Amino acid sequence: MTSLFVLHYFGVHSYVAPIRCQLVLANADWKDEFYAFDETFKDFKDKLPFGTLPVLYETTVDGETLVIPESGCIERYLAHKFGQMGANSCQAAQIEMILSLAQFMFDFSMLSVVMVNNDELQNKNKKELFEKRLPTWLTHMDKQAVRNGSNGHLVGDKYTLADTRVICLLDTFVAMDADNTISPQAYPALFKVKERIDRHPHYAVYRKSEAFSMMSTREKNYYVSNKLPFDFDKAKFYDYTL
Ligand SMILES: N[C@@H](CCC(=O)N[C@@H](CS)C(=O)NCC(=O)O)C(=O)O
């Protein structure tokens, strides 16, 4: 018997796509607990450790329950548990570098673009994201994948938190990329990492699930309500046959 993980979040990918990807790749015993993204959330908010979602609840084999808020903390906790934090301290440092940059990219897109409700500022920041920051980040991630031997991983020769974090973020940017500038041709080594994750037997099944497509639709509605194009289906570059 192993732990049971329950991931409390809204019915979208957003902050927790990499966490779900980690759980799936590790073949963990887990499920989602969905919250409604409306005024009823305030009834739950005060009961959450930091007042925000996601929160991970783990019931261990001994019957103890661990409660962990903060997406980055949940990712690292699971990565340590599942052996996704690198083979040694040098690999762990490389993973941390990649995570630190990914966090900046995620925060910039959320706080400076998606959640901005001033059209002029949103357009200015979106232009900066797609014309400057994103090509730079993608180029660095592609170079990292090449430095690692173009073996379908960003660090070492196994799935790590660097792979799951970067590829889930890449999917979000592909979905937002109205001009289709992000492609396997432009960033071949990085897309090899994506292909490896997308073709993983468990993840391939998960991506085809009803829950996954329900979350893609909700996520699209959220972006569209913030006046941004979004199509998660565009992130389907590979045939998920097993
Ligand atoms: N630093 C937190 C941020 C989480 C966060 O902002 N969650 C949002 C939903 S995506 C939330 O709970 N918002 C509700 C609120 O703040 O009342 C993390 O990474 O987990």
TrEMBL record:
One of its GO terms (molecular function) is glutathione transferase activity. It comes from the Eukaryota. InterPro entries: Glutathione-S-Trfase_C-like (IPR010987), Glutathione-S-Trfase_C_sf (IPR036282), Glutathione_S-Trfase (IPR040079), Glutathione_S-Trfase_N (IPR004045), GST_C (IPR004046), GST_superfamily (IPR050213), Thioredoxin-like_sf (IPR036249). GO terms for biological process: glutathione metabolic process. PROSITE patterns: GST_CTER, GST_NTER. Transmembrane segments: none annotated. Residues 88-230 form the GST C-terminal domain. This is Glutathione S-transferase. It comes from Actinomortierella ambigua.
